[in-house]
Amino acid sequence: MTPGIPPARPERPPLFLSGVVLDAPDPQALAGFYQRLLGWPLTQQEEGWVKLVPDGGGTGISFQAEPTYTPPVWPAEPGAQQMQVHLDFQVEDLAAAEAHAISCGARLAAHQPQDDVRVLIDPVGHPFCVFL
Protein backbone atom coordinates (compact mmCIF):
# COMPACT_ATOMS: atom_id res chain seq x y z
CA MET A 1 0.00 0.00 0.00
CA THR A 2 1.36 3.38 -1.01
CA PRO A 3 1.07 6.15 1.61
CA GLY A 4 -1.60 8.71 0.69
CA ILE A 5 -3.34 6.41 -1.81
CA PRO A 6 -6.44 4.66 -0.52
CA PRO A 7 -6.67 0.91 -1.09
CA ALA A 8 -8.78 -0.24 -4.02
CA ARG A 9 -12.35 -1.01 -3.09
CA PRO A 10 -14.00 -4.20 -4.24
CA GLU A 11 -16.58 -3.77 -6.96
CA ARG A 12 -19.93 -2.65 -5.58
CA PRO A 13 -22.51 -5.44 -5.70
CA PRO A 14 -25.92 -4.56 -7.17
CA LEU A 15 -28.22 -3.05 -4.54
CA PHE A 16 -31.88 -2.25 -5.19
CA LEU A 17 -34.17 -0.45 -2.77
CA SER A 18 -37.06 -2.88 -2.29
CA GLY A 19 -38.99 -0.82 0.18
CA VAL A 20 -39.22 1.39 3.21
CA VAL A 21 -40.33 -0.18 6.49
CA LEU A 22 -42.48 1.65 9.02
CA ASP A 23 -42.92 0.37 12.57
CA ALA A 24 -46.46 0.21 13.92
CA PRO A 25 -48.34 -1.24 16.86
CA ASP A 26 -50.73 -2.86 14.33
CA PRO A 27 -49.09 -3.29 10.91
CA GLN A 28 -52.28 -4.57 9.24
CA ALA A 29 -54.23 -1.46 10.27
CA LEU A 30 -51.49 0.93 9.14
CA ALA A 31 -51.11 -0.96 5.85
CA GLY A 32 -54.87 -0.52 5.38
CA PHE A 33 -54.49 3.25 5.71
CA TYR A 34 -51.71 3.39 3.12
CA GLN A 35 -53.62 1.01 0.85
CA ARG A 36 -56.58 3.43 0.90
CA LEU A 37 -54.25 6.40 0.42
CA LEU A 38 -52.21 4.98 -2.46
CA GLY A 39 -54.39 2.26 -3.97
CA TRP A 40 -51.45 -0.16 -3.91
CA PRO A 41 -52.16 -3.87 -3.61
CA LEU A 42 -51.11 -5.92 -0.61
CA THR A 43 -48.33 -8.25 -1.80
CA GLN A 44 -47.21 -9.90 1.43
CA GLN A 45 -48.84 -10.52 4.76
CA GLU A 46 -47.63 -12.63 7.64
CA GLU A 47 -47.58 -12.38 11.40
CA GLY A 48 -46.28 -8.89 12.26
CA TRP A 49 -45.49 -7.91 8.65
CA VAL A 50 -47.42 -6.45 5.71
CA LYS A 51 -46.08 -5.13 2.38
CA LEU A 52 -47.66 -2.95 -0.30
CA VAL A 53 -46.11 -2.53 -3.76
CA PRO A 54 -47.35 -0.28 -6.55
CA ASP A 55 -48.97 -1.90 -9.59
CA GLY A 56 -46.21 -2.69 -12.06
CA GLY A 57 -43.63 -3.14 -9.28
CA GLY A 58 -41.14 -0.75 -7.81
CA THR A 59 -40.25 0.35 -4.32
CA GLY A 60 -42.91 -0.62 -1.81
CA ILE A 61 -43.79 0.17 1.77
CA SER A 62 -43.72 -2.48 4.48
CA PHE A 63 -45.17 -2.31 7.97
CA GLN A 64 -43.70 -4.25 10.85
CA ALA A 65 -45.08 -4.86 14.31
CA GLU A 66 -43.39 -2.93 17.08
CA PRO A 67 -45.19 -3.46 20.39
CA THR A 68 -43.28 -0.62 22.07
CA TYR A 69 -43.80 1.84 19.20
CA THR A 70 -43.72 5.49 20.25
CA PRO A 71 -44.96 8.02 17.68
CA PRO A 72 -42.54 10.75 16.66
CA VAL A 73 -43.22 14.39 17.39
CA TRP A 74 -43.53 16.89 14.52
CA PRO A 75 -41.91 19.32 14.58
CA ALA A 76 -39.07 17.89 16.64
CA GLU A 77 -38.90 18.76 20.33
CA PRO A 78 -35.96 18.15 22.67
CA GLY A 79 -36.50 15.02 24.74
CA ALA A 80 -39.33 13.69 22.54
CA GLN A 81 -39.26 10.78 20.10
CA GLN A 82 -37.60 12.11 16.95
CA MET A 83 -38.78 11.36 13.43
CA GLN A 84 -36.27 9.00 11.80
CA VAL A 85 -37.73 8.99 8.28
CA HIS A 86 -40.75 10.31 6.47
CA LEU A 87 -42.42 9.63 3.13
CA ASP A 88 -42.81 12.24 0.39
CA PHE A 89 -45.53 11.91 -2.26
CA GLN A 90 -45.52 14.24 -5.25
CA VAL A 91 -49.01 15.29 -6.32
CA GLU A 92 -50.61 17.39 -9.03
CA ASP A 93 -53.28 19.00 -6.84
CA LEU A 94 -52.21 19.80 -3.28
CA ALA A 95 -55.70 20.56 -1.94
CA ALA A 96 -57.17 17.37 -3.43
CA ALA A 97 -54.30 15.24 -2.09
CA GLU A 98 -54.67 16.76 1.37
CA ALA A 99 -58.42 16.16 1.40
CA HIS A 100 -57.95 12.57 0.17
CA ALA A 101 -55.33 11.82 2.84
CA ILE A 102 -57.60 13.20 5.56
CA SER A 103 -60.55 11.16 4.24
CA CYS A 104 -58.33 8.04 4.49
CA GLY A 105 -57.54 8.73 8.17
CA ALA A 106 -54.59 11.15 8.18
CA ARG A 107 -54.61 14.41 10.07
CA LEU A 108 -53.04 17.70 9.06
CA ALA A 109 -49.98 18.59 11.13
CA ALA A 110 -50.25 21.84 13.08
CA HIS A 111 -46.89 23.04 11.74
CA GLN A 112 -46.69 23.58 7.97
CA PRO A 113 -43.21 24.72 6.88
CA GLN A 114 -43.91 25.58 3.22
CA ASP A 115 -46.81 26.72 1.03
CA ASP A 116 -46.28 24.01 -1.62
CA VAL A 117 -46.05 21.12 0.89
CA ARG A 118 -48.58 19.66 3.30
CA VAL A 119 -47.30 17.71 6.28
CA LEU A 120 -49.81 15.09 7.35
CA ILE A 121 -49.74 12.54 10.14
CA ASP A 122 -50.76 8.94 9.53
CA PRO A 123 -53.01 7.10 12.03
CA VAL A 124 -50.08 5.97 14.23
CA GLY A 125 -48.15 9.25 14.12
CA HIS A 126 -45.71 8.96 11.21
CA PRO A 127 -45.42 12.32 9.42
CA PHE A 128 -45.59 12.24 5.62
CA CYS A 129 -45.67 14.96 3.00
CA VAL A 130 -47.63 15.64 -0.15
CA PHE A 131 -46.03 18.26 -2.35
CA LEU A 132 -46.30 19.88 -5.77
The figure for the number of domains is 2
Helix percentage range:
10-25%
What series of H and E elements makes up the topology? EHEEEEHEEE
CATH superfamily of the largest domain: 2,3-Dihydroxybiphenyl 1,2-Dioxygenase, domain 1
Question: Can you offer a commentary on this structure?
Answer:
It comes from Streptomyces evansiae. Residues 16-132 form the VOC domain. The chain is α/β, with parallel strands linked by helices. It folds into two domains: 17-68, Signal recognition particle alu RNA binding heterodimer, srp9/1, CATH 3.30.720.120; 70-132, Roll (2,3-Dihydroxybiphenyl 1,2-Dioxygenase, domain 1). It is 17% helix and 28% strand. It is built from two helices and eight strands; from the N terminus they run E-H-E-E-E-E-H-E-E-E. It has helices spanning 27-38, 94-104, and strands at 19-24, 42-46, 49-52, 60-65, 87-90, 107-108, 117-121, 127-131. The strands form two sheets. The chain has a four-stranded mixed beta sheet with strand order 1-4-3-2, with helices on one face. Strands 5-8-7-6 form a four-stranded mixed beta sheet, covered by helices on one side. The longest helix has 12 residues, at 27-38. The protein is globular and about 60 Å long. The mean pLDDT is 94.
